[in-house]
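Support reply, case 0932

Customer input (verbatim):
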Amino acid sequence: MRKAKFAVILAFVTGSAVLAQPPQAQRAGRPISFVACPEFRDTARQCWLAETGGKTYYIGGFTIGTPPQLLHKVLVEGVAHDDEVSCGAINIDPISISPLAELDYNCDTVLPDNGTGPRGGSIFDLPAEVLARNGADVPSPPPLSQPATFDITFDFDRSNLNLLNQGKVEMMARAIMASQVTRVIVTGHAGRSRLSDDSMLVENPAIGAQRAAVISAALIGIGVSPALLVTRDAKQPSSDNTADGVASRNVRVEIDLGAKH
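Our regenerated output:
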């Protein structure tokens, strides 16, 4: 049973459901976006917390691709549920976490074990041998039957592929190689994020081109023909002004097909 559970979790982590998955029902909640020092509660590996507006939030959710880290502030974006508690704090789900690059020596709080724990599991609880396989047990997706568009969302102001979007890119590459593809357009975007206090974080405009280059190199490394790839830069940061600016920090991959299957 344990092996089956980890197989399901691994499939989720590596993004096998990205290619075809029905939308999940939205739960009531309030959008929230803030920058704060993460705090680690020494209870479970994913018991990461952050405080803002006099409230403490749980930020170690299952779907985060990059974990918080001490000595770095973190951008937290998502939907808060005041009626849900995880690790003794308000649950945020869905959630996006972006540890910021600058060192901040004030971000060094480790809280004692108080007997609380997370609502659900975490990818960071998986055994090392499972994480090391990184998708080896996940079957390849079927050939695409129509043109498709996928978004790979990055951490704020970064162009490296975290664990979750590594898996998504691998599954996307497998789908491309299994299909009669005539062109793959990789368009990089820089973005911005409006915080709950109405301030704005804006990414370096050059990061869009960097993200497109990273995705293209990853696709080629997996086996996609370089002749299929067209790499583009969206040039300007998105003008999206919503509380959750995650959608504007992406690389959009458009896949054109030749003969239909």
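We compared this against your earlier run and they match. Two observations from our side: Confidence is low (pLDDT under 50) at residues 1-23, 240-244. The longest strand covers residues 72-86. Please reopen the case if you see a mismatch on your end.
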